[in-house]
Amino acid sequence: ELETEELQAVARCQAVARGWLVRRGAALAWARTRKKVAARRAAARRWETHRRGVKATADTERQLLGVWMASTREVNNAAAAISEEVRRFEASWARHVKRAQQVALAAPMPRNWVPQMDPVTTRPTFLNVRTGELHTLHPNLHKVQPQLEQQRNAAEQSLQQRLLRLRTYAVGVREAAAAQQEGLYAKLKSTREAAARLG
């Protein structure tokens, strides 16, 4: 009879333990479910706060992007205008020098100058038979050279003034864009902070 009572006691203990495990398992499952639901709700709240912040700042961000794009376009246009000015100047100067040289070479050679061939380099040189001067440059071009240098200096000064105006314009555009962007960044920050307080 003792064995029967022991068996019954063991059976009761096992039943209690099985029930406790089942109850404990259910409690753990509910705790996990509650934790997952809380995490999903927190993620939904964070997303809603983020969405509200994005919605509140979308116009300001669009303005900021527009200012940046417009200023970049203007600065790039100014840089292109600078390089175009330099290219046009160099092409125009080359044409001017070529014309001046053609005019100088078309004129008759001055008296006392004789073309010679350099025996070492086999290049043409010009000898003044009266003074003994020897030039590698044609005498007429030799006279024109100082005038061309003066004209080049004057033309370069004019070019530098035009380029300075373009560079000043580009700097002004950058500064104005920076000031406008600074104001928009401040507006963006305050709008985000206000949206975060509401969330």
UniProtKB/TrEMBL annotation:
Question: What is the name listed in the Swiss-Prot or TrEMBL entry for this protein?
Answer: Uncharacterized protein
